[in-house]
Design goal:
about 250 residues; alpha/beta; 6-stranded mixed β-sheet; binds fe (iii) ion; binds zinc ion; about 35% helix; 9 helices; Metallo-beta-lactamase, Chain A
């Protein structure tokens, strides 16, 4: 699968997917239609699938115009049926969606919103996780509880480590600044920090990351790790409580 990153709005990424074998063309979380239409035009592609990870406007803003133009279905969470106006194909945990010769599995990942889903292409080893898992971070808990979000992150953490992680925003540098305050002695984080600073200096995306890198460096995936707990100066053991405290600190960072 070919994947093109389309920067949109302030710091969103829209992803354009192409399966060369079948000619299927998808878009994940079209914040706005204009840059997607420009990219499709440049490539000479016609859109066949629109994927939405959750209902926020910066992830569905382009749905209507793109759907009108190409007549392709909008695929999203059954739990968001009432608030994704263009939704055609409402899917839940474990449901599969064909994309040309490829298949996306839906993983329900509540926390940022209660209807949030991720799309996992096992064959291509690619994950689109919206605002649930960011590189070195995770989404704010607008609708869900720490228990829900921690459970969602555990589901994503269990995927193969080579999985490329495509998240909804370029937040990596800000996440890094927070991560080093709670996990300062993590050598993997130090190495990732150098890579991130180098990419951002050259104005390049830090996305995709991989699950292996996130497992080793993302503090929100390490809430059950004794070293993280110790470095963060936490005397609590319960991973959910550690996660909740990390999230609270990040909210006020
Ligand atoms: Zn969001
Ligand atoms: Fe967002």
């Amino acid at each position: 699968m070919e994947i093109e990153l389309i920067p949109a709005l302030r710091d969103n990424y829209i992803y354009l997917l192409h399966d060369p074998g079948s000619g299927a063309v998808g878009v994940v979380d079209p914040a706005e239609a204009t840059p997607v239409l420009a990219a499709l035009e440049r490539r000479g592609w016609a859109l066949t699938h629109i994927f939405n990870t959750h209902h926020h406007a910066d992830h569905i803003g382009g749905d209507r115009v793109l759907k009108q133009r190409f007549g392709c279905p909008v695929i999203g969470a059954v739990a968001d049926r009432h608030r994704i106006p263009e939704l055609d194909l409402a899917l839940g945990d474990g449901d599969l969606c064909e994309f040309g010769s490829l298949t996306a599995a839906v993983i329900e990942v509540p926390g940022h919103t209660c209807g949030h889903i991720a799309f996992y292409f096992a064959g291509a080893q690619v994950l689109f996780c919206g605002d649930t898992l960011f590189s070195l971070g995770c989404g704010r808990l607008f609708e869900g509880t720490p228990t829900q979000m921690w459970g969602s992150l555990l589901k994503l953490r269990a995927l193969p480590e080579a999985t490329r992680v495509y998240c909804g925003h370029e937040y990596t540098e800000a996440n890094l600044r927070f991560a080093v305050t709670v996990d300062p002695d993590n050598p993997a984080l130090g190495q990732r920090a150098a890579e991130i600073m180098d990419l951002r200096r050259r104005n390049l995306p830090t996305i995709p990351s991989t699950l292996g890198v996130e497992r080793a460096t993302n503090p929100f995936l390490r809430a059950d790790h004794p070293a993280l707990r110790q470095a963060a100066g936490l005397k609590i053991n319960d991973p959910v409580a550690v996660f909740a405290e990390l999230r609270r600190r990040k909210d006020v960072f």
